[in-house]
Amino acid sequence: MKMQEDSSLFAVFQVAPVREDLFVAAGIVRGHRFALMDGQGRVVGGFGEYPEGHDSQNSDMENGFVYQSLLATQGERSLLAAATAMGESIQFYDLSDRDNPVLVREFTFGHPLYNRTGDQEQPIVFDAKNPDGFIDLKATPDYCVGLFSGEARTDLRAYGGDKILIFDWDGNPVKLITLGQSYTNLAVDAERNRILLLSVQPETGEFVVSGLPLSE
Fold this sequence. Notes:
The chain has one helix spanning 60-66, and strands at residues 9-19, 22-29, 32-37, 43-47, 69-74, 79-84, 88-94, 102-110, 114-116, 124-126, 134-139, 143-148, 161-168, 173-183, 185-189, 194-200, 207-213. By secondary structure, it is mainly β. It has a four-stranded antiparallel sheet with strand order 1-2-3-4. Strands 5-6-7-8 form a four-stranded antiparallel sheet, with no helix packed on it. A hairpin with a 4-residue loop joins β13 (161-168) and β14. The radius of gyration is 17 Å and the shape is globular.
């Protein structure tokens, strides 16, 4: 698929497939949070509000940078999960009707901390106390699995999350797992019922892979 030029989609940060004929793009979208594209990469609509309580005076560009998203989809039911990389927010959408996307559930516990710059190319800068949000987001047929931080970085190199948040695809929280250290990436093996986590040893720079059960 090659994305077609469209005046409603200014910039794309991430694209996720919902099904063969439908894709979701997150980035800077005129009047919406997300853009919908067909199987040929043509924009066919926009949808989605920014997390509840966001600054309604923000421009589309400011909101796009503030609420950068990680996306995960459940193709059989045409469901989307969108989690913020900064702050504490996740939304679940039903996209089975392309012309009428429905917000199924939203959790917003904290917004990103930032300042406007007035610069068109870099319209916001995040505050030093801004908390990292979701570090990674993955999907299985039954679950949406997120690697989460919720803490501000005291060291810019200390990127990662030390919590696993598991939701079902109706947006219900299923499990919180607190990890013994921070990880930078996760993968999910649904067939083997495993969550795989990647970390980097700060002393040696070596990569370490750890695993834990997805469900009991």
